[in-house]
Design a protein that fits this description.
By secondary structure, this protein is α+β, with helices and mostly antiparallel strands. The chain has one domain. Helices cover 25% and strands 12% of the residues. A 5-stranded mixed beta sheet has the order 9-5-6-12-13, with helices on one face. Strands 8-7-10-11 form a 4-stranded mixed beta sheet, covered by helices on one side. Strand 10 (297-299) and strand 11 (305-306) form a beta hairpin.
């Protein structure tokens, strides 16, 4: 009786099978990556919803939204809700209790705040605490995400600051360019720093102030941690500027971009410090540039600034509106629509999907 020989794959058959598997993996991998990004984007959206809810809870408690930062001790006297605030704390810290970070909030010494020196030393451990809800899971957060500048040069982000935890979410300053003297008609958030008697430009924006409607006002959007921001001086002057000053804004942006491309231009990263109020690049964005603009983010921490909303999500950014809803805005959004979404009471109606 003849023995039967076992059948196996020939080398050619094995190579064909491997090739087929490789093709299938190649076809499936983009779908898997897209599914993962969709999950990360949903998580990011949930973070923005949580921030929106925290802002509303803050408003319920204090009858106003928080300022971008607080810089002057006891400026409103003993009978006002923010009487015990001092200088250089970001709005992220102000809503930390509403973000279920009461342990952090309770450890803040509100009478010993400063950016440098021994007064700020007690808060060093707090500055380093990374709050998951302030981080977009799509952003690796290492300050190394590439960006292509207006000349097509691929640039890496800035190095993060040791001892400071980063942040991906910033508040809208609208179509204004001055953080220090931001006019509240042009944004959702501004400094708290002048005229205690009249609260002029003091950051006390309320729901009632938003005559454009909370569903038509940007509150918070995204930035990419470590995205390069030029420290080139802006040319907007001391007055508040909006896109109505279109020639001046364009000239300033183009001048900043040109200077930023020059050899030796000084840059810093955005989103590098969630706690410190000094870091304007970690607190705000403006609507003087469309999302993910290829123009440079420009300006110092305290004066003229033009910094875009940015994200690593393909095609645009997510943002929380003042009513607490979260929407995705594409990079191709009409510029005027985006600009006026930044204003809280400029009286200009906007329509968007």
């Amino acid at each position: 009786m003849k023995s039967r020989r076992s059948q196996g794959f020939t080398l050619v058959e094995l190579l064909v099978v491997i090739a087929i598997i490789g093709v299938m993996v190649g076809l499936l991998l983009p779908a898997v990556q897209a599914a993962r990004e969709a999950a990360r984007r949903m998580s990011c959206s949930n973070n923005l919803k949580q921030i929106g809810l925290a802002l509303h809870n803050y408003h319920d408690t204090y009858r106003n939204f928080p300022p971008a930062r607080v810089r002057t001790a006891n400026m409103f006297g003993a009978n006002t809700p923010d009487a015990w605030l001092t200088n250089n704390v970001s709005w992220h810290v102000r809503i930390s209790a509403q973000m279920e970070q009461g342990t952090i909030y309770d450890q803040v010494n509100w009478s010993a705040l400063n950016n440098t020196g021994t007064a700020f030393a007690p808060h060093t451990p707090l500055r380093a605490v990374e709050i998951p809800a302030y981080r977009c899971p799509s952003d690796p957060g290492k300050g190394s995400f590439p960006w292509v500048d207006p000349t097509g040069v691929r640039r890496t982000g800035s190095t993060l600051v040791a001892g400071d935890a980063p942040v991906n979410y910033v508040a809208s300053m609208g179509h204004d360019a001055q953080l220090r003297n931001a006019n509240l008609s042009r944004g959702f958030i501004a400094d708290m720093n002048v005229n205690a008697a009249t609260r002029t430009n003091s950051g006390w924006l309320t729901m009632a102030d938003m005559i454009d409607g909370t569903s038509n006002t940007l509150a918070v959007s995204e930035i990419i941690i470590g995205h390069p921001r030029s420290l080139v001086n802006m040319t907007l002057g001391s007055g508040n500027r909006t896109q109505a000053d279109s020639d001046l804004v364009t000239t300033s942006l183009n001048g900043c971009t040109a200077a930023s491309l020059a050899s030796g231009a000084t840059t810093q990263g955005r989103g590098i410090a969630w706690f410190r109020g000094y870091e304007g690049a970690s607190m705000i964005f403006t609507t003087l540039m469309t999302p993910n603009s290829n123009l440079w983010d420009c300006g110092a921490n305290t004066n003229d600034v033009m910094m875009a909303a940015r994200s690593v999500h393909p095609g645009g950014v997510q943002a929380t509106l003042a009513d607490g809803s979260v929407k995705f805005f594409t990079e191709s959004i009409n510029f005027d629509t985006w600009r006026f979404l930044g204003g809280s009471k400029d009286g200009v109606p906007v329509t968007f999907d």
